[in-house]
Write a structure and sequence with these properties.
By secondary structure, the protein is α/β, with parallel strands linked by helices. The protein contains ten helices and seven strands. InterPro entries: Cmo5U_methylTrfase, SAM-dependent_MTases_sf.
Length: 287
Amino acid sequence: MHPLDTSTSHISNSHIAKGYELTQAGDRYFDGLVDKFSRSLYQAPRGELRLAMLDYLLPQMLRLTAQPVLDVGGGLGQLSGWFAERGHAVTMAEPSQDMLAHANAWHDERCAAGAWPPEQLRYLAAPLQSLPQQAPGPWPLITCHAVLEWLGEPEQAVQTLASLLAPGGQLSLMVFNRDALRFSNVIKGNLQKALSDQLEGKGKRQRLTPISPVTHDEVCLWAANNGLRMDAVAGIRIFQDYLRHPSAEESEQATLLALEKQYCRQDPHWRLGRYLLYTFTKPKADV
């Protein structure tokens, strides 16, 4: 099994959330939606490509020295498993009990197969807002992938993440790109929606349109306001979403992956990635 893959053997359809409503903080959790989340985002070519690109980009964009990792909003556990397999001690924080249960079960399978020792991973059933109390660190490496777009206050989240970083520490941040969402709506013929810029999802029922898609400029501004330096940026899924005829053959998928790898960090192509992946560093204090 690929280290970023996940199985669905432990997904249960028995627990269905009643309303899929936002939390009081305006955030979207995924209790009752693990099956749909896994099927829609990871058991499809777009999910496979996203994971393959992370496998390709993370070693390029981060200084990996087996340092401890705080994985914020760890979801189904792919990223936590990826770091654990590479010798990092990982604390995975996730507010959804369903997501945590799935990740824990899948990680147990990987541990049993010898992928990493059991003590390599620990879990926190906690939202991002509570991490200054529950996992204050400071942390040399924090990952927060595909989380900001599901929060009511993404700008505040960046401030919290920056406060958890150690001086010299790195933040791997991946966000859903608002500009790519607008472009995709135009291509699909949703012209009025794009013109009015009403792109946000409502966060209700089983829809998976993010409630807070963000722009590159917003991310850069929020990071700078919190003293973070941007070291690298890349686009993930910069071509795949715009194919008229999705690749079906393995050879076509391999060619598409090669294209994504070749242009993911080249201007202007990275700017239309469905996801934007950043590395930020918290500068060391002047002595």
